[in-house]
What does this fold into?
Amino acid sequence: MSDIEQFFSPVEKNDSFNELQFGNLFFIHDRQNNFPSLENIDIAIIGVTEERNAENNEGCKLAPDNVRNYLYKLYGGSFSARVADLGNINQGHTTEDTYFALRTTLDVLIRKNIVPVIIGGSQDLTYAQFLGYKDLEQTINIAAIDSTFDMGNPDEDISNTSYLGKIILHQPNYLFNYSNIGYQTYLVNQSNLQMMNRLYFDAYRLGQVRDKIEEAEPIIRQADMISFDITAIKHSDAPANPNASPNGFYAEEACQMMRYAGMNDKLSSLGIYEINPKYDVSGKTAHLAAQMIWCFMDGFYSRKNDFPNRTSADYVRFHVVLEDSKHEINFYKSKKSDRWWMEIPYPPLKNVKFERHTLIPCSYKDYEQAINNEIPDRWWQTYQKLS
It folds into this structure.
């Protein structure tokens, strides 16, 4: 028996799939004593039927199987998917039991270089997703695609609107950076926005990201884990949540960001949360979530493994000296993918645990800013955190 098999119950699956559909291609835990082998697996689908800490979203625990109904019907692309569906982690006796099962599962999978794709359940499961990195002895970056920050009150119990505050206060602290993608100003407490700035975290307004969706790519490329709240997508495209907003990302933008996530060489877990089948219209949201997972897989099997090592001939290095400033910035452009990174000077006496954050993803726009004698925001914020 696998170390984690005890946490999972099998899923129901019919056998009427075409040989090229995912329902036939995935290794699926569809009956007792049929838990998939984790050998030669790249991606693991995990359903989590937990909703007890969901505010105003009772019913979201039913999402995993609804999404599977559509996911299994999709066809593979040009990639050969080595994917296991491990089944569902059901509600434990307490939410802490559910968190323990999820964090333990993630720890095992990440150590095996298998990327878990979590289908929630409520977004407080992001906290358990974060805890999956606790024993990996490295600091990590989180990106949340979300219309709000979910900071909450640190004195209150955890919920789907307060998990971020619990992550920030967790000791020992192994969070290096948090990026919010797509917040809507009228849904955000300004004091929380000020706290984000004080912590040198990144927050990108919905309009700012939608104006040029490709600028989301370097933000996503910096993340070790991603939490996607389905309410970040506008209600007309994803109605399966009572808290959905008339504004948000379009379905195709959500899919594009999921492809960016898949292409991120360092990303080691993805969670999609807050889908509530009770409010869905003709399965539209579950169908979209399935297509988002497809796009993630398409990106995953297009990975370039081109993170710069500062000396490789596979990169073009650009050295920019800013006038009237003591700063110099090294940029690296991959010859494989045309993606950009920039180097942050590392304080010689600083703890070595932060060294993995000294090369950060960026875009050509950041390089343009630098040659125009402007320090890019993402360079400055990382420099502040390292100083």
Remarks:
- The CA atoms of residues 236 and 282 lie 12 Å apart.
- The first strand starts at residue 8 and ends at 9.
